[in-house]
Amino acid sequence: MQEPVLGPIEIVDGVFWVGAVDWDVREFHGHHYHTARGTTYNAYLVKAEKAALVDTVHAPFASDMFERLRSLLPLDRLDYMIVNHVETDHSGSLPQVMAAAPQATIVCTANGEKAIRKHYQAESWRFQQVKTGDAVDLGGRTLSFLEAPMLHWPDSMFTYVPELALLMPNDAFGQHLASSGRFDDEVDRAVLMDEASKYYANILTPFDKLVERKIKEVQQAQLDIRVIAPSHGVVWRKFPGDIVQAYLGWATSAGEERVIVAYDTMWGSTGRMARAVVEGVTETGVEARLHLVPTSDRTELVRDIVESRGLALGCATINKRVTPAMAGLLEELRGLRPEGKIGLAFGSHGWGGGATKVIEAVMEDIGVTRAGDSIEATYRPTATDLASCKAAGRLLAEMVRSS
């Protein structure tokens, strides 16, 4: 793997990466996403007779971007500022760009202009709204635009350079991955796909149907795409077809033949029940993965749930409800709404229950098919309770297999 580079990197003829690598960030989206391997903020300069900057970087990294930009182009010669998406990890340096290049025209969707004006009180900036099929001629290079609303904000769009078969889709096909290599063939393949799958599961799962529809729309348009340059992580120059197929799989599949058992326990009773469920699952030959929710990496746990067909959730009761850690996971699932899951609820309580009812309500809300009734143990699970958990695990696994 090559050493970190300071200058811009040409990703295809006349298109340069001018972004920034954030090696240190460990939390994203308001501490909701654990970025164990850091991230990048990718911006791209397209140089022809005219010049366009496609997206910017998170504001604290503006100086990195400007250092790379100025080595390629005086900023008073920047003609267009393309804003694919207004979320501030991509548009955060927009005010500095427009201060240095007030002559530049901002190109974005109609929703993009509304959001930019709200974010930055941009009274004096020039805008050019675009929709699917519109294009900007740079003289020798063309920027074509494809609206992608709710992938993953209403303003989102893709920028495509037909002469180079280059797609710049902002958050689509990205990964939170800091690396010294800028391309997919310069990083460990297993690490790359691990981060790509976590990214999809935690950010794009609610938009599965839109992802499927947008990919098929691009395929039907027969766009020649040989390089995909997203806004986070590496540029796909060797395996662009692989990540597109992976997205189609994630968007259309209910998951692997696997059961995730995720639980929280106070004095060990629910933990014993969870292990009994795992035993029942594994007896059938179906894979099981056990997660203690408070100590698990939430981002990886969510990815495991999204990519598995079976889900057993167990929790001790506290104040007639679930523990705070389980409540956070349930709220995450309520928002992501992973489809096609088969589920089981279980838990223990003292003088009064309630946790399993909370879990049941969330499962019903997100459309989980239940594998039998919930299992509850009072104080300590008996041998009969544990046998019931084991039997429920077997049933859940058999339903997963037959689905």
Structure report:
- Helix content is 35%, strand content 23%.
- The strands form 5 sheets. A 7-stranded mixed beta sheet has the order 1-2-7-8-9-10-11.
- The chain folds into 2 domains: 244 residues, Ribonuclease Z/Hydroxyacylglutathione hydrolase-like (Metallo-beta-lactamase, Chain A, 4-Layer Sandwich), CATH 3.60.15; 147 residues, Rossmann fold.
- The N terminus is likely disordered.
- Helix 6 packs across helix 7 and helix 8 crosses helix 12.
- The chain is built from 12 helices and 22 strands.
- It is an alpha/beta fold and 403 residues long.
Which descriptors apply to this entry?
alpha/beta; 2 domains; 12 helices; 22 strands; disordered N terminus
